[in-house]
Amino acid sequence: MNETMPPDLIAAAATEAEWLRLWFRVMILTNLAAVFFILKKKPTGGFTARPEALAILAAFVASGVTMNWLYDWVGYVRLLGVTHLLFWTPVYFWLLGKFWRDEYSGPFRVYVFIYLVIAGASLLTDATDVIRYMLGNHQPLHLN
């Protein structure tokens, strides 16, 4: 890794423009909001776990851990988006299918819609970034 590279992924992300740092916060908060939907009331009383919320959180954590590892290996480059593609894409399309089939209602449906918009925008950007990296754009992002 380049000697001028920030020491960790958080420090590297802090070098970005304010609008991009805001986007990072929106993505983080959107994913973490799944915590509020983990428990779902059962018609017979009591609560049950909502697998969709758990999947969002698991994909978010797995992507974050893997992205930090990848940063240590390759630096702050466009390839980092591959972690979102790897972990978020299956969850995204699973939720999208269920959303289209009208399987959600109430506040959780609104949350899933917001998640699909935010995660979808991120996945499109990540796919573009990974393709650019594979085509030879290895410029560290903090130097752009």
Quick overview:
The protein is mostly helical and 144 residues long. The chain has helices at residues 9-13, 18-32, 51-74, 82-100, 106-134; strands at 39-41, 47-49.
Radius of gyration, whole Å: 17 Å
Shape: elongated
- Described by its quaternary structure, the protein is single chain
Q: Determine the fraction of residues in helical runs and give it as a percent range.
A: 55-70%
Distance between the termini: 17 Å
Uncertain stretches of 5 or more adjacent residues: none
> How much beta, percentage-wise?
under 5%
Structure classification: mainly alpha
Number of helices: 5
How many domains make up the coordinates?
A: 1
Largest sheet: 2 strands, antiparallel
- Write down how many β-strands occur, each being a DSSP E stretch of 2 or more residues: 2
What is the spatial order of strands in the main beta sheet? 1-2
Give the SSE order as H and E letters.
Answer: HHEEHHH
Mean pLDDT: 95
